[in-house]
Amino acid sequence: MRYLSVATIIYSIFIWAFVGPILNIAKIFSDRVKRQLQGRADASSTKFLIELATLRMKAKNCAVFFCSSAGEFEQAKPIIDRLQKANVFTHVFFFSRSGVEFAEARQEESSYSLSPLDIMWTWGAIFSVLRPKTVILVRHEFWPAFLMAARQWATIALINGVPPSMLGREPKIKTKASAFLKKLLLGPQAKIYTVDQEGQDFYANTLGYKSSHLKIVGDSKYDRVFERVEHLRETSLETNTQLKKFWMGSKPILILGSAHLPDLNFILETLRHPKAPKVKLLVVPHDLSSRNIIDMTRLLKENNLISELYSEVEVLLLDKKQIESDAIVVDTLGRLSELYGVADLAWIGGAIHSKIHNVLEPAAWGVPMSSGTRYQNSQEAKILKEEGLLFCTNSRDQLIDKWHEQLQVASETGHSLTRVIKKFCGTSESIIRDLNIIEDQDARKTNHH
Asked: What is the dihedral of CA 191, 197, 203, 206, to 10 degrees?
């Protein structure tokens, strides 16, 4: 432990004396570096520490989260929400500026900030103000100075633990020495909550954690998706009802979620077949750049389909005017999840030419789904396919037959999808209960009375 502390101090001096100044020079020439550094120094300022201290005083207990970006924050969100309801103060540190921007765009009410440079004395000052009981890492954040400082104050917990290979990259830990270093950073007393048995085997066999510090609890993203959809059912009800009333008519709506040009081309060729169902087409591109939107609207026009942009449709809905188009192309960010609520059929993009995108949101809405055959990158897609709830094909004839079948049994499919998603929920409660964050607080209240 002493050697590790000395090594972390040397590492911090290197970051402070060399990396920091180099980045400050680099930001003059690189907008990308400038964007990532913007606001990072604020996290080590006296003003920031005073603000944190003021917020921290309002609660007896505190939990700190470290998230790389928006995706990791979404996984932590159901745990954060539950802790806040129990009057536990939470603060989220984002490594990436995009995470902060995501939280700002969502008007997130919980406390969050960009992380400072990884320097031990900076983190020491922050933790002395926050005094957390628990520090939670989401998936794969291993910053030496942060972890060394956190270990002086709190129980370290890693949630949604998976092998590095499941994060879309080759494992970085290839030797026993580097595996040993990773365990040193987390500490032997860290709690590791894994998604499945493969994750548990990785932390047990590669990092050498004892079974008493490992627990398979599943993935908190299921909680997040299900709760978000339940919230959207209420908040987007009026818009979705209006869209169905003024556009749908008697035709079902086919939504293309996270669609690429190959997806749209494949679907349009399929819809040209005389046996294909007559549908309204709701296209939500994965790439919302103006160039891609233009390309997609042009492709729709070449197939003799009248299309409108969703930003234009929203104006028509406000005026309660009929929408005459055959297709709507969504050109505004963050609308996909709620728009699954108006769909009768869903095509999940990406799997025709590359890899499948998110299947959890349409599943939570109970929408019958289909996709191309490149679905193996998604554990959820594999599960849903095995359950017969995701149809994967590159055959237009098979897809047409499946669409007709899905329209006939849409209600039964919806119930089955909800059942499967609910089966994977509950991870957040398991983690909170095992870490004993809220129970200790409840116990103190009981003893006080």
From this structure: 170
390, β-bridge pairs: 369
**CATH 3.40.50.620 assigned to 226-423:** no
Eight-state DSSP code of residue 320:
T
Same fold across 37-218+427-448 and 226-423: yes
DSSP string over 15-51: IIIIIHHHHHHHHHH-HHHHHHHTTTGGGGSHHHHHH
Helices within 30-143 (DSSP H only)? 31-37, 46-56, 70-85, 97-105, 120-130
Taking phi over 0 as left and psi of -120 to 50 as alpha, with beta for the rest, 352 belongs to: alpha
Segment 208-250, tens digit of pLDDT = 888 899 999 999 999 999 999 998 988 888 888 899 889 977 7
In a 10 Å sphere around its CB, with 0-12 CB exposed, 13-18 middle and 19+ buried, how is residue 146 labelled?
Answer: buried
Residue 188 backbone class (left: φ over 0; alpha: ψ -120 to 50; beta: rest):
alpha
* pTM recorded for the entire structure: 0.80
pLDDT of 78 reads 96
Whether the predicted pLDDT of 70 surpasses 50: yes
The pLDDT value given to residue 208 = 82
Which contiguous run of DSSP H or E holds residue 240? Answer: helix 237-243
Tokens at residue 29, please?
């020439």
Question: Euclidean distance between the first and final Cα of the chain, in Å?
Answer: 41
Say whether domain 37-218+427-448 belongs to CATH 3.40.50.300: no
Tens digit of each residue's pLDDT (9 = 90 or more) over 421-433: 899 999 999 999 9
Domain limits, the chain: 37-218+427-448, 226-423
